[in-house]
Structure formats: C-alpha cells, structure tokens
Design a protein that fits this description.
This protein has 20 helices and 10 strands. By secondary structure, it is of the alpha+beta class.
Length: 491
C-alpha cells in the first residue's frame, strides 16, 4: 500500500500541533505544581496557627486548674486532643492510662468534672475567647488572602465559626446574610421570598381557570370509542371521560392553570397545542376498549398500554389516565401534560431523568398539592428494602420531602450528582427521585433566573454537569456541601 508523502506545510502543521501539545502538558504540570504548593502553604499556615492555639489552650487549662473550674478544664483538654492526639497532660487529665504496650487507653467510665468557683466561671467565656481569638484571626487571614480552593475556604471558615459563630467579618467573607434565625446563605432568604411568589402564581393561575370549561357535545372520534363519555371544553382544551362532571371540570381547571403557571415560572410564552385533549377513565377496565378504539393507537402498540397507569398517545395531543381515584387521576393528568409542555418549551423529556422527574414533581405539587406520579422503581442493588421503605414514606402525603432529603444527605446515602445526571427517568431509583426533587426545589426557589437557560441547554444535549456548574459557579462537590447547608437552613 502506497502512503503519500507529507507536504512541507503538513509537516509544519504537525510541528505546531506537537508544540501545542507539549505546551499543554507543561501548563497542566505547572497548574498541578501550583495546586500542590498552594495546598502545602495552606496546611503549613494552618498548622502554625494550631500550634499557637495549643499554647493558648494550655494556658487556659492552667487558669482553670488554679480557679477550680474542672469542667472548663475538661473542655479545653478535649480540644487539645483534637489538635494533638498524643498530648500527655490532656490525656492524663481526662483519665487515660497506659497499657502494658505503652498505648493510651480511655477510662472504662468517663471521669466526672465540676466547676466550683462561680465568680471564675463567669470570667471563663472571656478568657476562652481570648485563648481562641488568635486562631480565629489566623483563619480570617487565610480567607482574606483569596488564594484558597473551595474546600480550603470551607475548612478555614468552619474552624473559625467553631470559636466565633457570630463573627460579622467572617460571615461577610462567606457571603452570608443576617436573618431572624442568625447568619444564613443568601439563597435561604431568597427561597423564602420565592416560595411566596410561587404561591401567588398558583393562586392567580387557578383563579383564572375557574369556570372556563363548559359542557360540550362529543366529537365524532369520541363517539366511536364505546364508553359512556361526557365532555367539557375551554379554548384549546377538551376533557373527556367516564369520570364525574366535577372531576372533568377540576381537571380542566388544573390543566388550564398549569399552562398559565408554567409560563409565569419560566417566563415563557410557550403554549399547549390548541387540540389538547385529556381522557379520564373512572375504571381501569375501561382502558382496553379505549385503547382498542382510539384511532391513533395501532393494533401492534396496544399491548404496551396494558403496563401503564396512563400516558400520551403517540403522534397526537391526547392524554389518558385510568388509575386510582379522582385526585390520583388529576395528579397523573397534570404530570403528563406538564411533561409535554417541558418537551415543547425546552426539549426536555424522560432522557433527562432528574429534570423530568424533579421539576415534574415539584411543579405538580405546587399546583395540585400532590406528587403521586413518578416513573422510578425501588433500587435492585445495595439495600432494596431501604428503597421500598423510603418510597412508602414519600408516597405518604404527610411526609416532608425536604426533611427526607436532608436525612439522605446526613446519612451519606444521596446519589452522586455526576451519576444522577446521566440517567433517564426510567433508570432512577427512589433516592434519585428524592434528590432530583431537591435539586428542582433549590433551583426554582433559590436561582429561578438561571432555570430557563439551564433547561434550554440541557434540552439541546449540553452536558448536565457543565451546565449546572456554569449556572451556579460551583463544582459538584462544593455544591453538594452547599446544598446540605441550605437544606438545614430551609427546614
């Protein structure tokens, strides 16, 4: 096989490519070296501050001993052991003894300590602040230098807040804001205001949809389905079914309100198609004749509907739900239409699982106060029973999902966001659904201004991790810690 000779220009291009690659390698190496140096400098400066803190605490221990404040002395000795696990004097004070091998062993029963001098005890807080103030200032200095990684900033801030939780200068560096509950994230106050705004959108949307739908005659295609249908209609919407007239009216109101609500939430003018039709079947047994006689469901696709609680009819703007009681059917119909609206407005569908389920559940609950319709199943790996128990709790209307989400984070059972973003709605576990709901809640309450652009990018295939990080300005690991704090403050 003959190989064409390379031209001089090709060789020159290759040389430039090689130089660029070499330059990239050097740049990566320099960045890695800089990161390592930054990490080493941070550790060195923190260790120097800890050494000073140990000395100050030892002085505090001596004062406590002389003042007969033995419980205060215990507090300082426990902190000394955190800073220096082999601190001999602190170990002895707390009742540790050496075994035959020379290793320190804790007392079988912790020693009891008391404070005896009330006048000295009143003086103790000021002396404790004086002992720890140098360390707080050192952490503040690290933060103000502005050369720390996100993780280092969190470490320095946490250590400073431990000793001075109300330091305004420190909270200012962290971007916190004052509230009636102390210092909180800006998103915590923003979310509180946004929840009121969302409730206003719901109220306005529902009031605008009251009594809009009126009874109408059945269309020709509806009469061909051998079920005792009645119908109501409003501009652009029909609700047809064997359900009660009240249910038909309530569903029409919910769907009409949904469109108005979504337009307000996403600042979008996207509308549902003018021939949107919702079918409500009061008995699951009515599914078979409905599917068999709907003109747009081919015979070879009818079996697929047997496994569903409801669904959209491919190639039409028809939706049908045949499971549960009235509230269940209204919830399911809203979810189906909501998913259709998201697809039209942002090209979001079940492939973007966390968006489809998270936003779908949040918005359905905001409008009709239920979240009964979701696609995920309990996990088949890990502890499946744990997933079943969680699912049962989430289906209980009295359960606070945000409390459950906080517990999931605290127990370190939350799914990694990078993995969650890769899943379709059909692949989500119960834990995935709860985390998706939490993410949607955070975004719609704390950063509603970025949501439309975020969904638009996701709908066009942009990386979920990249879009999420660009929108929030945090890497996923930092955001997960940020989210945990927000959940605590929100609750």
């Amino acid at each position: 096989m003959l190989v064409p000779a390379r031209s001089a220009s090709a060789q020159g291009s290759e040389g430039r490519i090689m130089n660029a690659r070499t330059g990239s390698i050097v740049l990566v190496a320099l960045l890695a070296s800089g990161t390592a140096a930054q990490r080493a400098d941070f550790e060195a400066r923190r260790e120097a501050a800890r050494a000073e803190l140990r000395g100050a605490l030892e002085g505090y221990v001596e004062w406590c001993q002389a003042s007969n404040l033995f419980n205060e002395r215990r507090k300082a000795c426990e902190l000394l052991l955190e800073l220096e696990p082999a601190h001999t004097a602190a170990l002895k004070t707390l009742g540790y003894t050496r075994d035959k091998s020379g290793a320190w062993q804790p007392p079988a029963k912790p020693k009891a300590f008391r404070d005896f001098d009330k006048q000295a005890l009143a003086e103790a807080p000021a002396r404790w602040r004086a002992a720890t103030e140098g360390y707080v200032q050192a952490m503040l200095g690290l933060l103000e230098a502005g050369e720390l990684s996100a993780e280092q900033r969190e470490q320095a801030a946490a250590e400073a807040l431990r000793f001075d939780p109300d330091n305004a200068r420190l909270h200012g560096l962290l971007g916190d804001v004052a509230s009636d509950k102390g210092w909180v994230l800006p998103e915590t106050l923003r979310a509180k205001a946004q929840r009121e705004l969302l409730r206003g959108h719901v109220k306005q949307a529902l009031e605008g949809a009251v009594s809009v739908a009126v009874p109408v005659a059945l269309s020709e295609r509806e009469r061909k389905i051998p079920l005792r249908f009645e119908a109501v209609a409003a501009p652009g919407l029909r609700v047809v079914g064997t359900a009660s007239k009240d249910e038909l009216q309530l569903t029409a109101q919910a769907v009409l309100a949904l469109e108005s609500f979504l337009q307000a939430v996403f600042t979008s003018d996207h509308e549902l198609p003018l021939d949107t039709t919702v079918f409500l079947l009061s008995d699951p047994a009515q599914r078979a004749p409905f599917v068999a006689h709907h003109p747009s469901i081919p015979p070879d696709e009818r079996a697929a509907y047997e496994r569903l609680e409801g669904g959209g009819v491919q190639g039409t703007n028809d939706f049908a739900f045949w499971t549960g009681d009235m509230q269940r059917r209204i919830d399911g119909s809203v979810r189906l239409v909501l998913g259709y609206w998201l697809s039209g407005a942002f090209q979001i569908d079940v492939r973007q699982g966390w968006v489809y389920e998270g936003f779908g559940l949040f918005l359905t609950r905001a409008l009709v106060r239920t979240r009964m319709t979701w696609l995920a199943e309990p996990a088949s790996v890990g502890d499946p029973q744990q997933g079943v128990v969680l699912r049962q709790r989430l289906l209980d209307p009295a359960t606070n999902w945000m409390d459950e989400s906080l517990r999931l984070l605290q127990e370190k059972r939350q799914p990694p966001l990078g993995e969650l973003f890769k899943k379709s709605a059909l692949q989500l576990t119960t834990e995935d659904v709860l985390t998706s709901y939490t993410l949607a809640t955070y975004l719609l309450e704390a950063h509603p201004e970025i949501v439309p652009k975020l969904l638009s990018r996701l709908g066009t295939g942009y990386s979920a991790s990249a879009a999420f990080q660009e929108g929030l300005g945090m890497d996923l690991a930092t955001f997960e810690r940020h989210l945990a704090r927000w959940l605590k403050e929100r609750n």
